[in-house]
Design a protein that fits this description.
Layout (H helix, E strand, L loop, with lengths): L4 H11 L3 H14 L29 E4 L4 E2 L5 H12 L7 E4 L26 H8 L4 E7 L2 E3 L3 H8 L10 E3 L6 H4 L11 E9 L2 E5 L12 E11 L16 E3 L5 H16 L4 E5 L16 H13 L7 E4 L5 H4 L4 E2 L3 E2 L3 E4 L2 H11 L3 H7 L9 E4 L7 E2 L9 H14 L3 E6 L5 E7 L2 H5 L8 H17 L3 E5 H5 L21 E2 H8 L5 H17 L12 E2 L6 E8 L2 E8 L5 E6 L8 E4 L5 E3 L5 E6 L4 E7 L1
Parallel strand pairs: 1-3, 1-20, 2-21, 3-4, 4-11, 11-12, 12-15, 15-16, 16-20
Antiparallel strand pairs: 5-10, 6-9, 7-8, 7-9, 13-14, 17-19, 18-19, 22-23, 23-24, 24-29, 25-28, 26-27, 26-29
Helix pairs in contact: 1-2, 1-8, 2-7, 3-4, 10-14, 14-17
Length: about 625
Amino acid sequence: MTVPRRLEANIRQVYGRRADRTLAELQELWKRHRLAVAAPEAGAGAGTGPGAARVPEAGDVALIAYADSIRGAGGSPLAALRRFVRRYLAGGSINTLHLLPFFPWDTDRGFSVQDYRAVDPRNGTWADIEALAGEFAHLMADLVINHASLDNPLVQGALTGDPRYRDYVIRYDDGEQPDAAALAALTRPRPDPVLTRYFLVAAGGHMRATFDSPAKEGAPDDEAPIRADGWVWTTFSRPPNPDGSAATRQVDLNFRNPRVLLEMLEVLLCYRGHGADWVRLDAAGYMWKELGTPSIHHPNTHRLLQVMRDALAGRADLVSVAEVNEPQETILPYLGSPDAGVESDLVYQFGHFPLAVHALLSGDASHYKRWLGTLEPFAGRQFITIYGSHDGMGRKPVLGLLPDADLERMVQDLVAGHGALPNYARQAGGGRIIYELCATPWSLINRADAGEPPQLQVDRYVACGALGLVLRGVPAFYINGLLGVPNRLDPEQLDENRSINREQFDEAALYAELDDRGSQMRRVLDRLLHLIEIRAGEPAFDPGGPPLQVLDSPAAVVAVAADGRGRRVVALTNLSAEPQRLRLSTALFRGQGRVRELISGAERTVPAEEAWDMLLAPHDVTWLAGTR
């Protein structure tokens, strides 16, 4: 079986003397799963076939939800989520479901995976997953690729000496761990040390690795200490719990061992077998560690992502989405290049939401409009988080896009006035910075004590969603954002700051709110679904269309022209709470006498003059459609 050139070259570059064995084991994987060898050659970055990027289709819009976002009186949470989808999203305008980690877990709401191949029985079963997949054109699952739970068999085996899992994690014997100087260059997404001490204990006749000292008060009686064994790499470490016990659970996997790579390929094929045709590569940027470097975006990380894509090119329907929560200039390389070929099909685009929030709060969209002009290289291959993510609103994605002073002013305003809870990270060299702000999207956009008319707040919120829907790519709505839910959880009762945006809805109470057509939640949902339905059927919004044309407009107005398949839509969004006047060139409509306003359905007459004077109401959204 011939191995494509790019795949072989990358494996030899990364694994050196272990490359021949790795290639042989990869070929065995292909045989077991009956995969055709169809990996692209270097340079196959465009066009059609396995070497081409799978650009999203017109109408692809995603819902992001936890397996247990909704809890009902009967059945599993996954079944409750399916009932919600059937009851309120039955129109099909949202055609993709990103189901956040549904596996057994211990921390970080699923992102500390105890078993990659199982559904947490608290959530449901694989049959529930497959039933949900049947409600959508696409199902996206998470491959938590950088780390696993301390209790994951891969990690436990590596730390307790199981030869099957030798070197599956990065560990150091006690006294031989790198010192602070050797670790100083690391980029840290958390403020705590990257190395966590672990201990081996005898428990129930078996050896077990733990982060809690067996000598500490309250240790189980059946646990006998063996030794303080060493230190393990934990990129996403946490400070201790209030009682002094270890809160860190996520242990990094060691991709220097090619067996880890092969393990992840098997996991991906497991997900595909249960209906997931899209996969989110969580925290992909941290996969490769090298002392003396930031250990993020390492060249070998990019090589390994190319290997994974090429190795599974025989499953040409599997779409990869790289999740890299970083400044924009570091995201683009994860798509690949014309010379090197495709690396992932889409990348997460976190920049829209913080830039839109800044524009809404300041009444100045100039930075947002400037950013629109930087999106051409992405060519529609973006997974756009319209209202932020399940984690909150990141700060790093807008570094360099918002002036530092404006960014810091917004961060402080959101903490002081909007109830946002800050999480911190540590920069290379030791400085602590705010990493993200945790709050529901509604509360980041609207102050609870503003004293504004409710309709104005709904209009403001919908304006943010409308902005994201115009962008080229796959718009994605986290369930709390789609429903416009304010902060409702008491910060004093949270297990961590992120939980404020991870409310679990009681099914009956949720339905009671949504069935009240005058409720805030129902008004937000109806208006967003109306916009989503329009977008799904409008050729001008095709993700593969040409770059958006940013039009001259007042500072508080975003005006763009979107073209596609002979259609043109001029999208106007007033981000101010005040009316705004603008002059629109009638040349945009090439002498057409009438155009259609898509949101209201009304037809409007295009003036005979060169300019069309318009008055936009506060937070008005207008989509004018004509032919090119």
